[in-house]
Amino acid sequence: MASELKKVPIPRKGVDYRGKVVLAPMVRSGELPSRLLALHYGADLVWGPETVDRSMIGTTRRYNEVTKTIEWTRKPSQGSKAPPDDVKDSIIYRVHPELEGSKHIFQIGTSNPELAVQAARVVAGDVKGIDVNAGCPKPFSTHDGMGAALLRTPDKLCAILEALVKNITPEYEIGISVKIRILETAAETEALVRRLVATGITALTVHCRTTPMRPRERAIRGQLRMIRDICHEAGVACLMNGDVESRDHAAGLVEEYGVDGAMIATCAEKNSSCFRAGADGGVAPWEQVVEKYVELAMDVHNKFGNTKYLLCQLVPGKSPMYKLLQPCKSYLAVCETLGATHLLERARAVDVAIGIDPESKAQLAADKSAAKAGQKAARKRQEQEQQRQTQQQQNQQQWKNNPSALAAGGNPAQDRANNKKPLSERGVQQRKRSQSPNNMPQQQEVTNGIHPAAAPALSREQFLDNLIS
Ligand SMILES: Cc1cc2nc3c(=O)[nH]c(=O)nc-3n(C[C@H](O)[C@H](O)[C@H](O)COP(=O)(O)O)c2cc1C
Known about the structure:
Elements lengths: L19 E4 L8 H9 L4 E3 L3 E2 H4 L3 E5 L4 E6 L15 E6 L1 H4 L3 E6 L3 H11 L5 E6 L4 H4 L11 H19 L2 E7 L4 H11 L6 E5 L16 H11 L2 E5 L5 H11 L3 E4 L1 H5 L15 H14 L4 H11 L5 H6 L5 H8 L5 H10 L7 H40 L2 H5 L4 H8 L3 H4 L12 H10 L11 H9 L1
Helix pairs in contact: 1-11, 4-6, 7-8, 11-12, 14-15, 14-16
The structure holds flavin mononucleotide.
The site of flavin mononucleotide has 24 residues, from helix 10.
């Protein structure tokens, strides 16, 4: 009989990371509307972007009735000790309690146990867990001893985790976790992980790259089983991160490596519908994702600059829309350019609410040309959507005649998932690094005008296999 896996207790208000596919912490790309988008498409938990302890300490917490968000604000320092009274407060962090409160993990950037506890206390009542960033390789993080620098100072990292476990867990009844990178040798990683799992944490996420590795370099999974074993011996959940492309891909990897869950960053940044299982529709056309994103960004009055930044990630660079969006300086211009006519009134109101003047002369001229182009794009999209729907109806008819669909109670994707062998046993080739994971469907969509899930050349099974491999 297989022995029961040991599990450290999950605090009453905390969350168990097991069985979850989650959105990674991402500075800039992981702001509120991005997290809501990931949740909309089925992410199980969402990490906020790393926030440095000192920037949280001393903030004021308030509830924003308009956006229904909790905001932690402070006056910008502007280099002087006492900023003038009329300077507007900056929002340092925010959480949407209704839409993400039960799924939000706050990630802290710190190199000091006392400051870590002080900062965690500021948000701990409004989130489901506190995660410590021990993997960021950027100098702004490491020069202060934070992020990946902590991997080289395990005493300090363990002291931070122990202080959080000792103070935050009993007071707020939530768990503490850590996100690390692998070290150069398995022996080094092993020694570190053994110490980390003894601190009282409930979970550990491992980004399967070493600190010097560039994001474009393929993740290394050779140490993963060893890390998993150490976590499991201690009863700590183990999440894998690095080149996880979608929910279905995550399911295959979790099975193959025996880890407890997976975390997705870059692929979610490019198309957050990667959290949707193939059986539920899989990766959606970027146009749909973009429109949903803009709606969510407007709902929560997201800073326009951040919205535009994310749009540049969500819209494929090769699409004509990418260029068309560049001159947009307001939500109104974005919605016109996208041809989202049903959103125009809302966009106008949001622009006014956040202090953008869409009626300025320069803005009107830019809007006019963008609107023209947007209408053309919208017409084309409508045609494509019609083609897609027709194709989907034809495909559904095919599935009905498929014996494996009948065997699985009419759910062929589930059937395949249940019977799927690990990738290694199926001899599936690894995707080439140069081929961006989500670009596969996006690229095809741009060239064919039809989403590959509906493209006649690929069966649904081939499409899923492509996503996984
Ligand atoms: C734009 C961006 C911002 C990131 N910010 C953070 C961060 O705040 N904290 C963190 O631990 N990792 C951060 N990362 C790293 C990711 O969380 C993740 O570990 C890494 O991208 C590997 O996952 P992937 O292969 O799915 O992209 C960031 C990555 C990106 C692309």
